[in-house]
Amino acid sequence: xxxxxxxxxxxxxxxxxxxxxxxxxxxxxxxxxxxxxxxxxxxxxxxxxxxxxxxxxxxxxxxxxxxxxxxxxxxxxxxxxxxxxxxxxxxxxxxxxxxxxxxxxxxxxxxxxxxxxxxxxxxxxxxxxxxxxxxxxxxxxxxxxxxxxxxxxxxxxxxxxxxxxxxxxxxxxxxxxxxxxxxxxxxxxxxxxxxxxxxxxxxxxxxxxxxxxxxxxxxxx
Length: 221
Description:
Oligomer: single chain
Largest sheet: 2 strands, antiparallel
Number of domains: 2
Structural class: mainly alpha
Helix content: 40-55%
Shape: globular
Number of helices: 11
Order of helices and strands: EEHHHHHHHHHHH
């Protein structure tokens, strides 16, 4: 039987590497009690076919993990959340490791999805300092329900194609930067960091118009 080819996000095809998908599921289960990577894979019942996309495989695995969530096995909510996060980073950055904050902002702003004023409100030194402060690993503690809320309602996206342009931590930091951009320059980075910590650790809950709109040209403050 000929080898199955997988269609990557850039349209190229490559031979299926099952080890790669095992590693992703193992990553999502790492450190969590009462969960099993093999159980997720068995539950997924992936029907491989020539040309299947990596996105289809990821969504299938996410669905499988979400269907294992129960009162007896609650930690699958974090497995499914991590799988969405992995999938999201691949969509947004093209890789798992996030891009530099300013580089990412500039790219998405040129597409018209971020407020252009942020590029002049903060210096490159400010951007670099805040890039170092972003805690991307906080996304790994978000549940399946939270990640579905993010990619469905809160993250900046093309509403026609569904393409998403950011992760939760990028959104949180840019919201904080937008809200405090007019504060005195000698103190505002502290306000930005403190506010980012409060909202990204969910000490403060933001309404949907703030979560979805602030940092965009259609911001509602």
